[in-house]
Structure of Prefoldin subunit 4:
Amino acid sequence: MSSGKFPLLQREDERDVEVTWEDQQRINKFSRLNTRLELLEDEYKAQKTEKEYLDDLATEIELIDEEAVPYKIGDAFVMLDLESAQSRVEKDKAAIDLRVEDLDAQISAVGSEMDELKRALYAKFGNAINLEKS
């Protein structure tokens, strides 16, 4: 490299393909779905963490000898008798399980729709488009 310059990279896989209005709509839809998927995945993780907290709480409540325990509802704590607290924990766990199932179904549906769009866009644009997460 006596000249100090690098040779230009060859881009054999890239093609000059015109982006039509329909292509742009597909790209925009993919972007919206990608954002939605990230939000769903974040909520899924948060719900799973909350479920773990409730599992730990259920174990702790079983070990308590006191008649009343503080239980957080929203931003406030209320005193519940032991049986009511255990019942409330089980009810909250069931609600989270339903929400996790719903989120899982939504994540699968969005992922499938994104896969279809990926196939169509990669078929037309090849390596000239990157739809993978970085």
Observations:
- The domain at 21-125 is CATH 1.10.287.370 (Helix Hairpins).
- Residues 82-125 form the longest helix (44 residues).
- The helical segments are 21-63, 82-125.
- DSSP finds two helices and two strands in the chain.
